[in-house]
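Project outcomes to date are best conveyed with an example. Our students and postdoctoral researchers have been running inverse folding experiments weekly, and each run begins with a structure described purely in tokens. The record below, which covers 288 residues, was selected by the lab manager from last quarter's runs and is presented without edits.
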């Protein structure tokens, strides 16, 4: 799903989340493990108004494990609890209720000290489109839930989903936030993963960005797949990157009349293979 975010939509999305904050004890902020900063909302701290928060790096199955470890250290240094999951298979999800309760330990301990039976902790999942909110909710619920409400402006009655034997309750509709559009590289990173449609950013520009990044950080994976000979010596020289795009196009038979390479076709094929995991696991930004 791609949402065209206009200022009015952002205000509405923000208001909807802030309405929901009144109902819950903690927030699960979902990010994409391949780009944990670029897949966050730029105003998240302000929007959440200090609600206890767990940061989840989803799609960890697709990310570079070494870089994911670095991100976990980074978030720890920032004072946040974060951990990687794969919502599509459910790996790591068992940890969520435990971590949420840990986050709310003081509050729960106070209830116990007053002789009260702790009530289930109530949680809201938030994140930008395509980070896996619906997948996570459905996995936690053990059935298909988050289909209708998953758009700004679409409202329905609040429903609570019991998780972890009733210890935790999840709001069935996630809070949808917008990404940080102002930074062009953020847009490209999101587009490489397929989170922004190619009608919005040019497919050749997206592939150029990805090929440049892979030349630098994942040369082995890319060069082996497309039998590329020489790693660029100057990553900032566009000619060297375009030469690679042409080599990739030739390898995949993307030829036009006169022996020229069809760069648009080559770009689409490259991105399709990348997203399908044909070049292995990768991350598009690292903290250090
Ligand atoms: P959203 O609600 O935040 O917008 O995201 P959604 O759950 O719709 O997930 C977006 C895409 O990401 C889906 O793929 C989903 O299957 C995939 N996804 C979610 N979590 C994970 C994960 O942990 N690992 C991997 N590898 N993929 C994940 P899609 O191609 O859009 O849909 P579909 O082919 O699954 O139907």
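After processing, the design step wrote out the following sequence:
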């Amino acid at each position: 799903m791609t949402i065209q975010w206009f200022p009015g939509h952002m205000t509405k999305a923000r208001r909807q989340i802030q309405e929901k904050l009144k109902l819950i004890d903690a927030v699960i902020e979902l990010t994409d493990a391949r780009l944990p900063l670029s897949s966050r909302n730029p105003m998240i701290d302000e929007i959440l108004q200090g609600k206890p928060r767990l940061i989840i790096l989803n799609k960890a199955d697709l990310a570079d494990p070494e870089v994911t470890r670095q991100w976990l250290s980074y978030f720890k240094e920032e004072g946040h609890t974060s951990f990687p999951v794969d919502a599509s298979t459910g790996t790591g999800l068992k940890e969520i209720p435990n971590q949420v309760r840990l986050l709310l330990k003081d509050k729960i301990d106070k209830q116990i000290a007053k002789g009260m039976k702790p009530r289930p902790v109530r949680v809201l999942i938030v994140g930008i489109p395509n980070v896996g909110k619906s997948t996570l909710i459905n996995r936690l619920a053990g059935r298909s839930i988050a289909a209708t409400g998953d758009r700004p402006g679409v409202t329905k009655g609040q429903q609570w989903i019991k998780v972890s034997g009733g210890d935790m309750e999840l709001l069935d509709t996630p809070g949808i936030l917008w990404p940080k559009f102002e930074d062009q590289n953020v847009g490209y990173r999101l587009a490489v993963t397929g989170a922004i449609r190619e009608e919005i950013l040019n497919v050749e520009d997206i592939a150029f960005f990805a090929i440049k990044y892979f030349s630098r950080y994942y040369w082995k994976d890319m060069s082996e797949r497309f039998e590329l000979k020489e790693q660029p010596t100057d990553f900032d020289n566009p000619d060297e990157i375009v030469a690679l795009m042409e080599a990739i196009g030739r390898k995949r038979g993307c030829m036009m009349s006169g022996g020229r390479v069809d760069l648009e076709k080559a770009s689409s094929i490259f991105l399709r293979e990348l997203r399908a995991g044909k070049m292995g696991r990768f991350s598009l930004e690292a903290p250090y």
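The pocket of guanosine-5',3'-tetraphosphate is lined by residues 1, 58-59, 61-62, 86-88, 127, 129-135, 150 (CB under 6 Å). Residues 7-21 form the longest helix (15 residues). The training component of this project remains on track.
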